[in-house]
Amino acid sequence: MNILVCISKTPDTTAKISFKNDSKEFNSDGVQFIMNPYDEWYALVRAIEIKEQVGGNVVALNVGGSDTEAIIRKALAIGADEAVRINAEPTDSMFTAFQIAEYAKSKGFDLIIVGKETIDYNGSELGAMLAEYLDLPYVSYASSLTLDGSKAIVQRDIEGGVEISELNLPCVISAAKGLAEQRIPNMKGIMMAKSKPLTVVEPVGFESKIQTIGFTVPPAKSSIKMVDPNDMDELVRLLSEEAKVL
Question: To bridge 23 with a disulfide, which of 19, 32, 131, 175 should be the other Cys (CB 3.0-4.6 Å)?
């Protein structure tokens, strides 16, 4: 089983967010970056579990600069067999999906898993774009993934129930919470990661169709107003005039 897992770097959830260059670019000064949790906890770990069950090879792939290599090495420490870095700054989801697809076309992957979204952009776009570029079946937000011969059985939560899909391999899956349990790299894995192969690939030419106009931060939260529990008239007035819920 030859499995590709796409990983990305994201700001730590505690990072202070700001922008520069007329608010067109994220300000990374002083920001600590981590592997996107949906990629790490669910996509990567499930791929490793499948390899442990049926054998095979897990490749962790990142589109990014040399500053992402510490994150890539973490993927190797968790259990990926090899890693690839496409040497380009990811400008948008379509660019990233195109680069991954161009690399994956000739590699014979049986299964491609991505996190359902990154925690910075929350776009949930890359998996579908990647599947389209590769002309492969795709299921998003998978909470369960099992293999049955040449088929993948995928379960995902929907409103009021559970949806179960059966796909022919190869296919693309995006991983949601529940697909696997987080693994912490142990000392053996960390030491082995230093000797596992990390291949750097140059990007393929691509004309981006997306332009960043600018970023804005959410407005500051207003202060809390305390209302006497016996003053129902004031509560109704506030809900009607300020909260706008009535």
Answer: 19
Nearest-angstrom CA–CA distance, 26 and 19: 5
Nearest residue to 26 via CA among 220, 208, 215: 215
185 contacts 46 by C-beta, under 8 angstroms: no
**pLDDT tens-digit map of 155-212:** 999 999 999 999 999 999 999 999 999 998 888 899 989 889 999 999 999 988 888 8
Contact 144, 179 (CB under 8 A): yes
For residue 210, the one-letter residue type is I
Query: Measured between alpha carbons, how far is 176 from 140 in angstroms, rounded to an integer?
Result: 8
Structure tokens at 6: 């796409």
Q: Are 206 and 95 in contact (CB under 8 A)?
A: yes
Which sequence spans correspond to the domains of the chain? 2-215
Topology, domain 2-215:
Rossmann fold (3.40.50)
| Contact between residue 192 and residue 81 where contact means Cβ atoms under 8 Å apart | no
Q: Closest Cα to residue 90, out of 56, 114, 110?
A: 114
